Amino acid sequence: MSGFGHECAEIVRAARPGSYRIGMILGSGLGSLAEEVEDAVRIPYSHLTEFPVSTVTSHSSELVAGTLSGVPVVILSGRAHYYESGDPTVMRTPVETLKDLGCDILLATNAAGSLREDVAPGNPMLISDHINWSGKNPLIGEEDEKRFLDMSTAYDPELRGVMKKVAQETGAPLAEGVYMWFSGPSFETPAEIRMAKMLGADAVGMSTVPEVILARFLGMRVAALSIITNYGAGLQAQALSHDQTKSVAQTGMARMKELVRAFVKEIGHG
């Protein structure tokens, strides 16, 4: 660990004493969930050592600690992406901070493009596995033997089971599939989308995978949700844009919020 995670965790503890179990990372267009946290303290990333401030307009770049559905949570509202700096370790200190605060579960969310006709924009998709197409890894350069990390259950089966259970109970539609990470920031080409489908991907995006690797390296259990904002290149008539990503993410936010709140409540009180 870098050491900055402990320093940042102490800042959070000083602002809001207490222990936490669930940490969250909110992706494009999903930041409004952080506004529903009760008894909250909000700390801008710029006040936390080695926290990266995102250059993406839909990421607020603040840490929010409080309760959601009566459960203590720490939310990273906004993330920095590999494409902003070329550094796959850019979210290391934020993830380490969650771990130091006691979070043994990470729920990561993102906006993604669907490769399946039956998973339409505006709907959530539970990530069952990922394909690291970028080839970048936040553990490169790590000297500890722990760098040889088993990723066979990167997306915890038990947590996925809980997510599917609460989706069924709340009536929320929830597909499940494989997420493929492209580095971005340009969207994929139609040929790349055809390749991704052949390789077994169900959705594509530009984030999350490095954070999942880091969380697993730190011993955290992981669940992840994509809000589908578009179909992949060549699968829809309109051109892809970040404005579309933000707009559709907002449309699907009600479904995502209900699902996340129910998940947090089930984990926290289960």
TrEMBL record:
Name the UniProt record assigns to this protein: Purine nucleoside phosphorylase
Entry GO MF terms: purine-nucleoside phosphorylase activity
Domain called Nucleoside phosphorylase: residue spans: 21-265
Superkingdom of origin organism: Bacteria
Cellular component terms per the entry's GO annotation: cytoplasm
Residues noted as binding a purine D-ribonucleoside in the record, renumbered to the chain: E188, N230
Sequence similarity: Belongs to the PNP/MTAP phosphorylase family.
UniProt-listed SUPFAM superfamilies: Purine and uridine phosphorylases
Keyword DNA damage annotated: no
Known role: The purine nucleoside phosphorylases catalyze the phosphorolytic breakdown of the N-glycosidic bond in the beta-(deoxy)ribonucleoside molecules, with the formation of the corresponding free purine bases and pentose-1-phosphate.
